[in-house]
Amino acid sequence: MQISHYNLFFAHFFLPKYDSRLCLFPRSIIMSVLPPVRKDRIVGQFPKCFKKEAALNTEQDFQSKVKTACLQQRTGTVGRFKISKVIVVGDLAVGKTCLINRFCKDVFDKNYKATIGVDFEMERFEVLGVPFSLQLWDTAGQERFKCIASTYYRGAQAVIIVFDLTDVASLEHTRQWLEDAMKENDPTSVLLFLVGTKKDMSSPAQYTLMEQDAIKIADQMKAEYWALSALSGENVREFFFRVASLTFEANVLAELEKSGSRRIGEVVQISSNSDNLYKTSKKKQSNCCQ
Ligand SMILES: Nc1nc2c(ncn2[C@@H]2O[C@H](COP(=O)(O)OP(=O)(O)OP(=O)(O)O)[C@@H](O)[C@H]2O)c(=O)[nH]1
Ligand SMILES: [Mg+2]
């Protein structure tokens, strides 16, 4: 689903209850807007990282409490009406649009057409039997469009910082892109990915040198490193499956934590005042205002 500026205009003015921080739309809108999950978007196994030395997680499988929650359909808003926002940032012409287009539409355009402001694509997955949607925001790298694009950074659950494997300056600039993206987001809850594109254009010797530097930067940023090619498609699907799975797992864990803390609150209330079991929220409010 290619969203033009007219579509963004529509989203802003005609979806009034959209909460950009939580990425929550009313369920009726989600049901009518989202396409069904494609067969090739079903994630059954935990996707592997690209490089163990620059990975967010080196586990072989989803956490067992996540698998149990999915089996028991206890995933809260995940799988029902929550959409996770992913922003894609990086210098101009590094290949952000081509990367998204290769994954979402399986096309590649060799002609450069600068993104003006932002575009977004919606991708639906099914992870461990639970439907899960990613909203992929493709932002402009050109300086003159940066201020428009940066207004869409807020509320991201994952940030993909892209550089060109044949252009060392674009790798150096990734620190600045990270800083800008983090001004609008909570660094403790955002998943970071550092992605080198145009692998098909890089000679093995050039690639090895670039990868050493990229892994160092990824480590400092606490990001997961990937190298891929939108032209050949190498690693593109694997990468987005990894983004979807890690984001999904983080969302389910957050839901489990939320429902766990609600239960703990109830137990405290029951033992402290057995006369009225429904006073939990009032008591909490008065405590927090003291
Ligand atoms: N050989 C090769 N060329 C690529 C690859 N990815 C992108 N390109 C080319 O790089 C140029 C820029 O690609 P875009 O995807 O438009 O770059 P962008 O990062 O979206 O640029 P802005 O929208 O200006 O920020 C185009 O000419 C693409 O064809 C790749 O993996 N391999
Ligand atoms: Mg673009």
UniProtKB/TrEMBL annotation:
At the top of the EC hierarchy, this enzyme's class is: hydrolase
Q: Which PROSITE patterns match?
A: RAB (PS51419), RAS (PS51421), RHO (PS51420)
Kindly state which reaction or reactions the protein catalyses.
GTP + H2O = GDP + phosphate + H(+)
CC cofactor? Mg(2+)
What's the EC number here?
3.6.5.2
Matching InterPro entries = P-loop_NTPase (IPR027417), Rab (IPR050227), Small_GTP-bd (IPR005225), Small_GTPase (IPR001806)
Its membrane topology, per UniProt?
Answer: Lipid-anchor
**Species this chain originates from:** Danionella cerebrum
Q: Which GO terms describe its cellular component?
A: centriole; cilium; Golgi apparatus; phagocytic vesicle membrane
CDD domains cross-referenced by the UniProt entry: Rab36_Rab34
Q: Which GO terms describe its biological process?
A: cell projection organization; protein transport
Q: SUPFAM superfamilies from the entry?
A: P-loop containing nucleoside triphosphate hydrolases
Q: What name does this protein carry?
A: Ras-related protein Rab-34
Q: Where in the cell is it found?
A: Cell projection, Cilium; Cytoplasm, Cytoskeleton, Microtubule organizing center, Centrosome, Centriole; Cytoplasmic vesicle, Phagosome membrane; Golgi apparatus
Under the subunit heading, UniProt states:
Interacts with RILP. The GTP-bound form interacts with REP15.
